Amino acid sequence: MVHAVNRGLSQRRSCALIGVARSALGYASVLAAKDAPAVSAMKLLAAQYPRYGYRRIRIFLRREGHAMSVDRCHRLWQQSALQVPRKQPRRRAAPRTDRPQPPTSRNHVWAYDFVFDACANGQQLKYLTIIDEYTRECLAIDLAGSIRSRRVIDVLARLITVHGAPRYLRSDNGPEFVSRAILDWIVTSGMNTATSDPGKPWQNGTGESFNGKLR
Taking the complete model, does pTM exceed 0.85, yes or no? Predict the structure, then answer.
């Protein structure tokens, strides 16, 4: 169209040759303006949580009033080039903002993790351990052959009714702790997550120490 006009043809003639309606020339997409507030909030959250993907960011966006589907969130995430890099230089890694300082009071940070064992007949046993990092008190040990995200939520919910909600829940990046159900429940309950970096168990030293003694 632009090439034809530059060659001396009128807009009417150019549109007729290309088969485009003249009304399309003045069309302005409203999608970008509609997405702008959500994209701005998404970029702020991505800067605050540089290691989170679009699924986690979507939960935080919904809490801030930007409810959207998974597909739309993924589209905006890709358009804004916010994908987490597959590999970063060690000395230039972005600082973690979701790992709290050492706990300063009871119910400041709870650490929860899994310990695995087996019976003599080979049946697998799975322990869910929950520790208050400040008091070093073991709040719960839940034992079963299989513990899924729904059961983790039930155990944490029972503890909150007794002790109150912690400010942070510290865990590793295992699939049980980054499931959508658990992340959604944590955000809805007004708590924050604090995940340990892969291969750095000392970032959850209190929980690892207790798990070693339990074993």
Answer: no
